[in-house]
């Protein structure tokens, strides 16, 4: 599998550019809006001219990408195996104080060593997409660090990206947390410095050979075996979940033109179709009736208590106002935009590239028998529900009718 276009473009740009540690420091100050805008350009399938940007922006976008992956690059299942390949030792060194009468004090010396053989074994158990992405990033940073014209080290890069790659677990004792941070940092250093050993099978030099103790070696082998089995099981379950999505069956003309249904469909424009939820009006009517009833005590007995009660009811209605879901598909811009609108919060929008769209599928609710919703699947593996909720419909006729109209729109050419 090839790494994502975002990773491929950024690594090529960084490899062709000279920079130093200051670029990493400036990356923390890059505006989030700019990072989000570049990321969304890739989501829409647009080309990003990296020659117009600088190194701090490239690092900031890469960090944002790694931090927002749906599944961590090193995977939740294998991260413990990675951690087991790193040995952290502490030694208390006595130090004589300037005042001899005060005796001595101690200084803690921390040593962190990596078992490259264990790291290589664990890396090779990663899913193909994770492996290719990690290899691409590690290879480029290895060449960057080795280039004498770049004043930057693997340790400095690890300081910037270790948390995104080796996020330490939460709710653990402070001293354990420190060890996990040190281990995560060393893992990233090893992936960069020892790229030939980890990814290309180069022999390990004697000075880099850090053997595991007998018991630890057995624990690592067992952990790696069980973690790999768990990862494979979850991948198979994920594939099974995808297969559980039903393909869209055709509908009759009578079903296609039936009143009401799953969503309102507006295809009046040749280059754009708008799907919108049709339950908002009914919900507002019910809430209006409820709010009117809540005002009855106010008219019967006008008092401070009834006023407060009515205000509380109106506030609850405002906070829980109906959510209108809108899907806008535009052929000219080649975008699929999903919006969630409500009067009590800003509009939430997600944008995907129309070129990445693969198919529509019907998903049945596990809790509500006979309730369905449409799912959009994309080539990059992302799935997006057309509606957050499920709609009751016999044999998903209402959902299939919307899908048929959407299919007809997508297959029609824009004049």
TrEMBL record:
The chain crosses the membrane at residues 295-319. SMART domains: RhoGAP. Pfam families: Cybc1_Eros, RhoGAP. Keywords: Membrane, Transmembrane, Transmembrane helix. Coiled coil: none annotated. The keyword Metal-binding does not apply. InterPro entries: Cybc1 (IPR027846), Rho_GTPase_activation_prot (IPR008936), RhoGAP_dom (IPR000198). Residues 1-199 form the Rho-GAP domain. GO terms for biological process: signal transduction. This is Rho-GAP domain-containing protein. It comes from Vannella robusta.
């Amino acid at each position: 599998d090839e790494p994502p276009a975002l990773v491929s473009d950024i690594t090529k740009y960084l490899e062709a550019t000279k920079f130093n540690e200051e670029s990493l420091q400036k990356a923390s100050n890059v505006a989030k809006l700019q990072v989000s805008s570049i990321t969304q350009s890739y989501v829409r399938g647009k080309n990003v001219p990296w020659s117009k940007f600088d190194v701090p922006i490239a690092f900031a976008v890469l960090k944002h990408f790694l931090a927002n992956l749906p599944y961590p690059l090193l995977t939740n299942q294998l991260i413990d195996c990675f951690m087991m390949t790193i040995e952290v030792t502490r030694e208390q060194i006595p130090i004589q104080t300037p005042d001899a009468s005060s005796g001595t004090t101690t200084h803690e010396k921390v040593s962190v060593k990596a078992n490259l053989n264990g790291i290589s074994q664990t890396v090779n158990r990663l899913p193909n997409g994770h492996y290719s992405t990690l290899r691409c990033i590690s290879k480029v940073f290895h060449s960057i660090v080795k280039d004498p014209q770049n004043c930057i080290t693997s340790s400095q890069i690890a300081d910037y990206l270790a948390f995104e790659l080796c996020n330490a677990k939460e709710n653990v004792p402070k001293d354990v947390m420190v060890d996990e941070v040190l281990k995560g940092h060393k893992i990233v250093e090893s992936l960069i410095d020892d790229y030939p050993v980890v990814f290309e099978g180069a022999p390990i030099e004697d000075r880099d050979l850090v053997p595991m103790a007998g018991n630890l070696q057995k624990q690592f082998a067992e952990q790696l075996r069980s973690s790999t089995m768990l990862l494979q099981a979850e991948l198979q379950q994920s594939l099974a979940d995808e297969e559980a999505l039903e393909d869209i069956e055709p509908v009759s003309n009578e079903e296609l033109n039936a009143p009401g249904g799953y969503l309102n469909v507006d295809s009046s424009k040749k280059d754009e179709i708008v799907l919108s939820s049709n339950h908002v009006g009914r919900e507002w009517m019910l809430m209006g009736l409820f709010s009117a009833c809540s005002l009855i005590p106010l008219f019967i007995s006008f008092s401070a208590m009834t006023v407060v009660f009515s205000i509380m009811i109106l506030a609850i209605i405002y906070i829980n106002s109906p959510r209108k879901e809108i899907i806008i598909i535009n052929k000219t811009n080649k975008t699929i935009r999903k919006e969630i609108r409500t009067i009590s919060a800003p509009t939430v929008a997600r944008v995907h590239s129309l070129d990445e769209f693969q198919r529509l599928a019907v998903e049945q609710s596990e809790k509500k028998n006979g309730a369905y919703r449409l799912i959009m699947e994309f080539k990059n593996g992302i799935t997006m529900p057309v509606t957050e909720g499920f709609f009751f419909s016999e044999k998903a006729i209402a959902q299939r009718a919307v899908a048929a109209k959407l299919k007809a729109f997508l297959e029609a050419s824009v004049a």
